[in-house]
Amino acid sequence: MIPERLKWTPELVNRFWNGIAQTSLVQLNFAKQAGPSLLAAIKHLLSRQGQILDFGAGDGDLVRLLCEQGFQAAAYEPAEGRISALETSLSGIPGFLGVIGPQAKHLFDVVIMSEVIEHVLDEELDVTLNRLAEFTRPGGTLIITTPNNENLEMGMIYCPVSNQLFHRWQHVRSFNEETLPALLAQFGFEEIVTHRLGFDPAVLLPWDPDSMGPLGADGQPLPIPDYITKLHNNEKATIGSESNLMYVGRRIDS
């Protein structure tokens, strides 16, 4: 039989991620694997006096990292089965601002949407991006990461029980450095810069803004690589494998 393509629905998406949360596959979550590298790449955009929202917080790994490094962060997670787990796992952490829901009216200085936009279903995209804008204060910063020009077909897997094909990580859309800023401009965001980068710890963690930087054999600090200078100056940078996009935008005053 010719395989059929799975039609994702909100119910199936919730079941998928609630199911993943019960397995060791959570160890492959982006924030768990690449969170420290992401934080090193965006720390120059953050203030410890400001308030940060992780939009689509999953298991809370990025929120935990932010709080552990002295930032104030809240979590937004639309999957109902994950909300109580998030509240329990992050409760009591200094700097944790709580879990917020779709009806919250709070404005944040920085909103991070890391490896989320590629999962949003067509019928939910406008609502999701409008909500993203509503959470970002005018003049505030939006940071989005997503796979760079992903070939969705190569991410498919086949289920022999149902005879269906579906993306192994529930990705439903792919972006490049032109299409992502163009989409976000429709929802009130002005592009500052979009980088192409791989979140490899070896190329980002040594240059964390809070560290002294690596030392050479003579004990002196090594020169800062050009790609790090560009990153910190919000100039377009290409780093490592270029497997991901990192969009930085500003919420336009309305």
From TrEMBL:
Domain of life: Bacteria
GO molecular function, a single term: 2-polyprenyl-6-hydroxyphenol methylase activity
Principal EC category: transferase
Protein name per Swiss-Prot or TrEMBL: Class I SAM-dependent methyltransferase
Entry's EC annotation: 2.1.1.222, 2.1.1.64
Keywords carried by this UniProt record: Methyltransferase, Transferase
Pfam families: Methyltransf_23 (PF13489)
InterPro entries: SAM-dependent_MTases_sf (IPR029063)
Listed GO biological process terms: methylation
